[in-house]
Write a structure and sequence with these properties.
With 260 residues, this protein is an alpha+beta fold. It is 33% helix and 12% strand. It has seven helices and nine strands; from the N terminus they run H-E-H-E-E-E-E-H-H-E-E-H-E-H-E-H. The strands form four sheets. A three-stranded mixed sheet has the order 1-2-3, with no helix packed on it. It has a two-stranded antiparallel sheet with strand order 4-5. A two-stranded antiparallel ribbon has the order 6-7. It binds pyridoxal-5'-phosphate. Residues 2, 6, 31, 33-34, 54, 56, 65 line the site of pyridoxal-5'-phosphate. Residues 2, 6, 31, 33-34, 54, 56, 65 line the site of pyridoxal-5'-phosphate (PLP).
């Protein structure tokens, strides 16, 4: 389960869901990729079994990340892969593994990237996760309010105005009003002006489909991070959309019907 959705930025109440699933004997793995960079998190307070996050999203290196495993599960995780440095020794019949987590870390690790990840997290903690959380919400709220002026825009229901989204991203489209204005065309046109954002199903087709939107087409998704985004950039995006969308609506061909 995601802690914060990468499509609608809804913050799930991990503690409540953790208690609920545990009452039914189910283990909970939380994907914190979009939460750890945005807000203070506390795995022990949530009572989760597993909690993972991605290093690159906390301004660390690509390919790094971390998995928290609840202490009572440490002895239940067994290696699926082998390599140096994970065992005390072996005989013909048995392997004497080191204790968790060393038994799950075969071979030479990417130490430099792991150290960089630690420094990245320290930097965010110095800025203060509460401060980052507050500023992300302020940026998202500003973007949501500014974007209302763009003709033909549709938003998914969660939004930072009523607190159903944390504001870290604002998903929208134009294809309801202008079927020929695809998300890809808008993103490409913005990209030519140096405004980079994601579009598409974002690995979560079911989320957009849940709201009755086209799962394949997905959404256009600007996301905001206080360390490298500011209010002027949001203004530039809105102004660019006001020029781009009518232009695309007037020039792009209508899409062929999709096979159902
Ligand atoms: C919610 C969520 N989980 C996982 C990932 C994957 O992260 P990574 O590719 O860094 O492992 C992403 C990436 O966008 C994400 O948004």
């Amino acid at each position: 389960m995601p802690h914060v959705s990468n499509v609608i930025a809804t913050v799930n109440d991990v503690k409540v869901i953790s208690e609920l699933v545990h009452r039914h004997g189910v283990k909970l793995l939380v994907d914190g990729a979009q939460a750890v960079p945005h807000m203070p998190v506390n795995m022990t307070e949530y009572g989760v079994d597993f909690y993972a996050f991605s290093g690159v999203k906390v301004t660390g290196s690509e390919g790094t990340g971390a998995l928290y495993v609840a202490p009572e599960l440490h002895d239940q995780l067994h290696p699926f892969d082998g390599g140096g440095d994970m065992m005390h020794g072996l005989t013909q019949d048995a392997i004497n593994y080191k204790p968790f987590p060393h038994n799950l870390e075969p071979g030479t690790r990417i130490y430099s990237s792991a150290i960089a990840l630690g420094r990245a997290i320290e930097t965010l903690q110095t800025i203060g996760m509460e401060n980052i959380h507050r500023e992300i919400h302020a940026l998202g709220l500003y973007a949501y309010r500014r974007l209302q002026v763009v003709k033909g825009i549709s938003f998914l229901p969660p939004n930072p105005e009523d607190g159903t989204s944390d504001g870290s991203l604002i998903p929208f489209t134009f294809y309801h009003e202008f079927p020929n204005v695809t998300n890809a065309a808008v993103a490409r046109a913005l990209g030519k002006r140096g405004i980079m954002l994601r579009e598409g199903c974002l690995c979560a087709q079911l989320t957009t489909m849940h709201f009755g939107w086209d799962g394949q087409e997905g959404v256009i998704r600007p996301s905001f991070y206080p360390l490298y985004n500011d209010y002027d950039e949001i203004d530039r995006m809105v102004e660019a959309l006001q020029e781009i969308v009518p232009d695309l609506a007037a020039t792009l061909p209508m899409p062929a019907p999709r096979p159902s």
